[in-house]
Amino acid sequence: MQESVGQELISFRIGEQEFCVDIMAVREIRGWTQATPLPQAPSYVRGVINLRGAVLPIVDLAARLGLGATEPSVRNVIIVVRIGHRLVGLLVDAVSEVLTATADMIQPTPDVSSDAVKMFIKGILALEGRMVSWITLDRILPEQEAEAA
């Protein structure tokens, strides 16, 4: 009977596209803060910020998904998520809403998409004429980086 239970997701925008993540992974949503760059970091890592005494790496989600780098402004937000045992900030354009998705609403990622897309996208929700891609958070950081950080 698990199918009928809805899963809560938080949706957000990157450019014209909508994405979502499991709300249980979200710890907080905060405004953009200038990040301190890290030497030798991947291009999609904007740097780190101080989050109440903890060092929080900031991932430019647009860059990570191959949609081009974000030029952060006061309008951007950071979604602080738990990936495994660590917290990571995801830089996005704006948070939209909380969605409740049931298993029958989730479509598989189309076969025409690249392997990179399939690596990050768990499925697609078709909602009232909108397509919302559900992101697999544990793929955002490469394995070796997740262990090193």
Could you give the order of the helices and strands?
A: EEEEEHEEEEHEEH
Stretches where pLDDT is under 50 for at least 5 consecutive residues are 144-149
Radius of gyration: 15 Å
Beta-strand percent range: over 45%
Shape: globular
Secondary-structure class: mainly beta
With strands numbered from the N-terminus, the spatial order across the biggest sheet is 8-1-2-11-10-9
How many helices does DSSP assign?
3
- The N- to C-terminal Cα distance equals 39 Å
Main sheet record: 6 strands, mixed
The overall pLDDT average reads 88
What's the total number of strands?
Answer: 11
Helix coverage percent of residues? 10-25%
How are the secondary structure elements laid out?
Blueprint: E1 7-14, E2 17-22, E3 26-31, E4 45-51, E5 54-60, H1 61-64, E6 77-83, E7 86-92, E8 94-101, E9 106-107, H2 115-120, E10 121-127, E11 130-135, H3 143-148
Parallel strand pairs: 2-11, 5-7
Antiparallel strand pairs: 1-2, 1-8, 3-6, 4-5, 6-7, 9-10, 10-11
